[in-house]
Write a structure and sequence with these properties.
Oligomer: single chain
Subunit structure: Monomer. Associates with 30S ribosomal subunit, binds 16S rRNA.
Protein name: Small ribosomal subunit biogenesis GTPase RsgA
Bound molecules: guanosine-5'-triphosphate, zinc ion
Structural class: alpha/beta
Main location: cytoplasm
Strand content: 15-25%
Number of domains: 3
CATH topology of the largest domain: Rossmann fold
Binding site for Zn(2+): 267, 272, 274, 280
Distance between the termini: 60 Å
Shape: flat
Enzyme class: hydrolase
């Protein structure tokens, strides 16, 4: 592989590159400055005006470079977006052009099947392929049973147990992030994402919880979101901002809950509410034990959430349009002759 393909560059992208520009992969964004990986190594670049007008480049984006100026963001193949809880702001692209999303949860403590399901629905929505990683396997006394249980909820998704302490399973995870492939980790706080990232990197690049506690500087010392090159040739996006994930839309839900979606399609009535309607395939599956009622409830909740989110973005779109029309009218009043 060439240098640039190791960064995830694929030949068909050449057609997307403006003439006279070189491609660079955004590894880091801070205060408007970009750290970009190129065939010639790392460089600091400035986003051009056209980029700033938009929401700006995200980690993982490919940009077109003219010297030290990034003049365009190339089309994204996949995008991991999030909405922040309680905000009305537009969804934010956390990381772009991911191949794999590692949904990370711990193999210890109470069963977290529903939580994994939720992360999977979000992960599928990104367009990248999710893999479930169960960390702290060294603290679980029946890893195969747990992996099996999680696999039943994670349809079509591989479940990989790992321990960052013993190193068991780390190579299996690394194998999913082969040369030129890009992965990101998502998962709740404290499940061991930073520890796993360090195990994959082979060196402690990312501060884990103990470090942060011992230096007394608290959680905010976590590094900025960053794209790291792995020793095996893959790329890993560090996790800040990937802990709490709001559902952006319902795109991933159907994939994550393909079994439920399938059943619902077989109900007698197309608008079946799956409550007490005759011929309800969902109710029948729950009754004879083919469908876990908790999984069904989780599906309904996620759908309701996605619907709320859709309404919110509709409201946002209306507000933007309203502001645009008002500005236009104001301009017309100010310069009546020009507009006519
Ligand atoms: N026994 C065991 N402990 C682990 C393992 N991985 C992580 N830990 C411990 O779990 C705690 C949390 O690990 P982190 O890597 O900081 O977790 P995180 O998911 O990055 O947490 P946030 O940065 O808050 O999102 C630390 O005390 C780690 O030492 C593991 O594989 N086995
Ligand atoms: Zn039904």
């Amino acid at each position: 592989m060439t240098e640039i393909s190791l960064l995830g560059w694929t030949p068909e992208r050449a057609a997307e590159l403006p003439p006279g520009c070189a491609p660079g992969r955004v590894a880091r964004v801070d205060r408007g400055r970009l750290t970009v990986l190129t065939a010639d190594g790392e460089l600091r670049a400035h986003p051009g005006a056209a980029l700033l007008a938009d929401t700006g480049p995200a980690v993982g984006d490919w940009v077109a470079l003219r010297g030290e100026l990034a003049v365009a963001v190339l089309p994204r193949r996949t995008a991991f977006t999030r909405v922040m809880a309680g905000r009305t702001s537009a969804p934010q692209v956390v990381a772009a052009n991911l191949d794999t999303v590692l949904v990370v949860d711990a193999a210890t403590g109470p069963r977290r099947t529903r939580r994994v399901e939720r992360y999977l629905a979000v992960a599928w929505g990104s367009g990248a392929v999710p893999v479930v990683v169960l960390t702290k396997a060294d603290l679980c006394d029946d890893v195969p049973a747990l992996a099996q249980e999680v696999a039943e909820a994670a349809l079509g998704v591989d479940v990989l147990p790992v321990s960052s302490v013993t190193g068991a399973g780390v190579a299996d995870v690394a194998a999913r992030i082969g040369p030129g492939r890009t992965a990101a980790m998502v998962g709740p706080s404290g499940v061991g994402k930073s520890s796993l990232a360090n195990a994959l990197l082979g060196v402690p690049v990312i501060a884990t919880r103990e470090v942060r506690e011992s230096d007394g500087r608290g959680r905010h010392t976590t590094t900025a979101r960053e794209l790291h090159l792995l020793p095996g040739g893959g790329l890993l996006v560090d996790t800040p901002g990937m802990r709490e994930l709001g559902l952006v839309d319902d795109e991933g839900i159907d994939t994550a809950y393909a079994d439920v979606t399938d059943l619902a399609a077989r109900c007698r009535f197309r608008d079946c509410g799956h409550r007490a309607e005759p011929g309800c395939a969902v109710a029948a599956a729950i009754a004879d034990g083919r469908l876990d009622p908790a999984r069904y409830t989780a599906w309904r909740k996620l759908q309701a959430e996605a619907r709320r989110q859709a309404l919110r973005s509709d409201a946002r779109a209306r507000a933007t349009e309203h502001a645009r029309v008002r500005a236009l009218h104001k301009a017309m009043r100010a310069q009546p002759n020009r507009v006519r």
